[in-house]
Amino acid sequence: MSFTNTSTMFKKALKGKYAIGAFNIDDLNGLRAVIKGLNNKQSPGIIAITSGSLNFIGIDYIEEVKSIIEKESLVPIALHLDHGKSVELCKQCVDLGFTSVMIDASSHDFEENIRQTKEVVEYAHKHNVTVEGELGAIAGIEDDVNVEDKYGQFTHPDQAVEFVEKTNIDSLAIAIGTAHGAYKFKEGQKPQLRFDILDEITSLLPDFPIVLHGASSVPKDSVDLLNQYGGNMKAAQGIPEEMLRLATTKGVAKINIASDLRIAFTAALRKSLHDEPAVFDYKIHIGKATEAITAAVEREIEQVLGSKDRALDFKN
Ligand SMILES: [Zn+2]
């Protein structure tokens, strides 16, 4: 099945009250593992690559990435630049054949964020590439909320409307309490998402695709396996799956998943190295670890995204 941008995916996801998973990959093994999981569950999906992962893969090998997607995917797949930190990088990725890019200018002030995002949108739309912008701080848990302001570091609903109108973006990443990485909440702190802010935003922007970053659920069995075989991620904590599922029914059309895949890979790699200490043929170990990525993708589709069998909707 051919590449697609995200526009039809998000329309269908909003209508069907499910979300499209954006799965971060770091190499070609990870790419093939994600495609396999999507194929097995007949789910549309997004292959997300950060600039760090792009460097790791090698920017000259993007043709291989595209070729693998074209050859192996049986479902609609978008190739997406995650957290493009400059207008130039976003334009470069459009030229390389990405079908979707994120311009993350959220660390700039509001006006500058609008200016940079708008510039990317104008360029990308000419090439039929969809654009995600970000507003608000999807930061660490340490940056505590300013109690003087109801919205604090979170996305301000009125600003979200102005941002979408002025930039003409296709989807918006918002901050409602998610955080990047595997340690999303302080030890003993109850996971919490600001559904009140999400509801305010979606009531002002009906049928507009909202994106959640930092939304790995950090499954306990996966972390336990990693710790059992010599890892040390004792205080890891993610967003509970039921909260993410609820978000998919409230206008969240895209959920980013990076940490969960990395934890699954590392846990399986540790177990394989432990179970077969005499094996030095690394394709055995890497093979098992990438199989765990496929299993993690399948789990997200079933437990969180609700996108199983939704690729079938694209056939007519
Ligand atoms: Zn992110």
**Helix vs. strand class:** alpha/beta
Name of the CATH architecture:
Alpha-Beta Barrel
Q: How many runs of DSSP E, i.e. beta strands?
A: 8
CATH class term = Alpha Beta
Can you identify the CATH superfamily?
Answer: Aldolase class I
Q: Give the total of domains.
A: 1
End-to-end CA span = 13 Å
Order of helices and strands: HEHEHHEHEHEHEHEHHEHH
Q: Quick check: average pLDDT?
A: 93
Helicity, as a percent range: 40-55%
The description of the largest β-sheet is: 8 strands, parallel, barrel
3D structure, described in words:
- This protein has 316 residues and is an alpha/beta fold.
- The protein has a single domain, classed as Aldolase class I (TIM Barrel), CATH 3.20.20.
- Helix content is 47%, strand content 13%.
- The chain contains twelve helices and eight strands.
- Strands 1-2-3-4-5-6-7-8 form an eight-stranded parallel beta barrel, surrounded by nine helices.
- Strand 1, helix 2 (28-41) and strand 2 (45-50) form a beta-alpha-beta unit.
- The longest helix has 24 residues, at 282-305.
- The chain is globular.
- The model is unreliable at 141-147 (pLDDT under 50).
- The structure holds zinc ion (ZN).
- Zinc ion is lined by residues 83, 180, 213-214, 256.
